[in-house]
Amino acid sequence: MEVKLIKAQAEDAAAIHAMQTQAFLPLLEKYQDHDTNPANETVERTVERINQAHADKYIISCSGVAVGAVRVTEKENKKYRVGRIFITPEHQGKGIAQQVFALIEQIYADAKSWELDTIMQEARNCYLYEKLGYKRTGETHEINDKLTLCFYEKEA
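^ that's the sequence the OP posted. Answer follows.
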């Protein structure tokens, strides 16, 4: 299983949007976070995110098939943020995300630290990030009575 990251272009927006909707719809149904869930974003918003100068958006390819996407933003002082990362449901649980993080850390080898956030109630996500060396900061942000974001950091 060969995982690659392909820099996204504006013309990739519809495909990324379709995968994003597929990946986040189960979470939308579970948590009812209509204002913040990526499944509710428009294709136009996906184009905007791809075109942002301070961030890089990648299509995640596994054995030549697009299976998700990831966004990396450079902040100040070589601090990077892993923004939205998703793998389509049928490709989850295969170790793809772990390989994506290894590739990101190679691409951004100048990083001094990393940060991300995830849904605190999603134990599999928290486990993955902790397994990859991320530590909870203790900061949380309640989206609604069902969903709370928790924040992570990792020194490079």
